[in-house]
Write a structure and sequence with these properties.
The complex is a heterodimer of chains A (112) and B (112). Chain A is mainly β and 112 residues long. Chain A contains no helices and eleven strands. In chain B, the strands form two sheets. In chain B, strands 1, 3, 4, 8, 9 and 10 form a six-stranded mixed beta sheet that branches. In chain B, strands 2-7-6-5 form a four-stranded antiparallel beta sheet, with no helix packed on it. The chains are: A mainly beta (112), B mainly beta (112).
Chain lengths: 112, 112
């Protein structure tokens, strides 16, 4: 158990809908990262937050957004969902940028 | 790079033998490297890390070797066990950045 908690573990939703994935980092970690893993794209970095502020942005679509709250938990919002958004979404955390990142168990999103 | 295709390279080893998993990284400015193990349906699990000022680092049954000249990283697993069967990813991070880039995963199959 890495200490990173993600909910929900599984989610099935229809195209065009919006979902929110939630992540609680390890105790004491200030940085949160979001990754998308699909069969044809591998582990793709989406976005990173540090202590509530966006710090780095990767291949995140405009339909997706994220935020980190004062209690350091983070949410990834996915809107106008398409079939191709079906993937495993991982959250990871670290004490601060530059250190080892630890992953949660992921949220399986299936868009039908 | 960041992409992992449907057809991951696969390494099959006999139980008890040593395994060597290789990774070519892309950025000569990367100064921190991590190996992760990912079992089916789970999040990537930290195995071992190494900084660019080192050539070798050992853990419990695992050794990471770093060759900066040819931008190559390897993970050696001693006395491979059935529980080592998983997909292994290397990740690199460039100095001054917060973005971890994951390499092409390698599937390790341990044969009984």
């Amino acid at each position: 158990d890495s200490g990173v908690t993600q909910t929900p573990k599984h989610l099935i939703t229809a195209t065009g809908q919006r979902v929110t994935l939630r992540c609680s980092p390890r105790s004491g970690d200030l940085s949160v990262y979001w990754y998308q893993q699909s069969l044809d794209q591998g582990l793709q970095f989406l976005i990173q937050y540090y202590n509530g502020e966006e710090r780095a942005k990767g291949n995140i679509l405009e339909r997706f957004s994220a935020q980190q709250f004062p209690d350091l938990h983070s949410e990834l919002n996915l809107s106008s969902l398409e079939l191709g958004d079906s993937a495993l979404y991982f959250c990871a955390s670290s004490v601060e940028g530059g250190n080892t990142i630890y992953f949660g168990e992921g949220s399986w999103l299936t868009v039908v | 790079g960041e992409n992992v295709g449907l057809h991951l390279p696969t390494l099959s080893v006999q139980e008890g033998d040593n395994s060597i998993i290789n990774c070519a990284y892309s950025n000569s400015a990367s100064d921190y490297f991590i190996w992760y193990k990912q079992e089916s349906g789970k999040g990537p699990q930290f195995i071992i890390d190494i900084r660019s000022n080192m050539d070798k680092r050992q853990g419990q049954r695992v050794t990471v070797l770093l060759n900066k000249t040819v931008k190559h990283l390897s993970l050696q697993i001693a006395a491979t066990q059935p529980g080592d069967s998983a997909v292994y990813f290397c990740a690199e991070k460039a100095s001054g950045t917060y973005k971890y880039i994951f390499g092409t995963g390698t599937r390790l199959k341990v044969l009984a």
